[in-house]
Write the structure tokens for this entry.
Amino acid sequence: MTFQTALEIFSENERKERRKILAAARGLKKHVEAFQKTYHKDIMKDVIAVLLGGEG
């Protein structure tokens, strides 16, 4: 396997992983928005804090 081939495989895997993360983030956003509509409470700051490693 050449360096170029390895780099292409790595790049493709990175793109796939990025798409998975973005899809999960979109799904999370929808859940947060649904929660906010149901409970009339803004939890986005708490969600972001948890995602960044805080307690929320």
DSSP finds two helices and no strands in the chain. The chain has a mean pLDDT of 89.
